[in-house]
Amino acid sequence: MEYEVARNDFATAGDASSNIKKILVQLGINPQIVRRTAIVTYEAEMNLVIHSIGGKIFVNISPKEIEIIAEDKGPGIEDIDLVMQEGYSTASNDIRELGFGAGMGLPNMKKFCDKFDIASEINKGTTVNMKIYIS
Fold it and tell me: Which ranges carry the Histidine kinase/HSP90-like ATPase domain (predicted)?
C-alpha cells in the first residue's frame, strides 16, 4: 500500500493510519499488533505533515511482519541523536498551538516497532523504516 502525505494537510492527517488499521483488523491480526502499527504509522504521518514538504508512506504486510516506510522530501535531520530524545521538537509555535510538536513522534515510532532505522540527508529528506513482527 502507498499513501501520499501532503505538507500541513491536517484535514487528512491520520487517514493512512486509520485505513491501515482497518485492513489489519479485517485480516484478523492480533489487536496489540494493530495498535502498535497504528501508532507508528500515525506518528510517521504527522511528522510528514509537520516537518517535510510532503512524502509517502509505504506499507507491506506479510505473514511474518508489517513493514512501514515513511519517506519525505524536506530539510533532512541535522542531528538524529538529538531528535530521538523524548521531548525535543523542531515544530514551530503555530504547530504547537494546534496541539502537535511535543517531540514524541520519532521516539514513539522506535518504541512501538520491533525494528527501526532512520536515514536522513540535509536538503534531501528523511526515510524511516520500521518493522513490526507478527509471528
Answer: 41-131
Query: What is the predicted pLDDT for the residue at 74?
Result: 86
Half-sphere exposure of 124 (CA within 13 A, CB side): 7
CA distance 112 to 92: 26
Q: How many Å apart are CA 56 and CA 44, to the nearest integer?
A: 10
Report the largest interatomic distance among the alpha carbons of the chain, rounded to a whole angstrom.
42
Q: For residue 8, give the nearest of 39, 58, 46 by alpha carbon.
A: 46
What is the domain count for the chain?
A: 1
Closest-CA residue to 111 (of 33, 40, 21): 40
Domain that holds residue 84: 2-133
Return d(Cα 63, Cα 82) in angstroms, integer: 35
Reported pTM: 0.90
